[in-house]
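User: Run a structure prediction on this.
Assistant: Running it now.
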Amino acid sequence: METPLPDWLTYKTSYDAAAGTATVTFTAKVLPDDELERFASVTFGSDGDVLTFNINQSLFNSIAEDEVTSKVQIAYKDDSFALSYPLEYTSVRMYTISGQLAGHFDLPNDGIFSIPAGDLVKGVYLLEFSGSSAGETVKAVK
């Protein structure tokens, strides 16, 4: 980890070598009565690749031991990105790290989808998941 955590925030990581996925789970202490909100920016890095999580805890989303986790899992295998996602997501847009749209896909309602990546250059891609009531952006590496 490249940035220190505030005392109200902890994290744990896990890695599934078989699936090629990593999970980072943040846990925030209960928001004190005298605070309306608080922020943290946490940066992780390895091998020249950096990922920053911006965490905002406010009076309106604070519950005891509130966990902020990604709902999406992505694994790069056999020239494709294997996706696992909540059923509320209906589409995903894939962007290059420079912001160029690399693809747009309608997602099936079973929570599993594969994006062919054989023609994509090696690098970092941002996958923006969206649905009727939720959205999430996740980084993927080819």
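The two ends are 22 Å apart (CA to CA).
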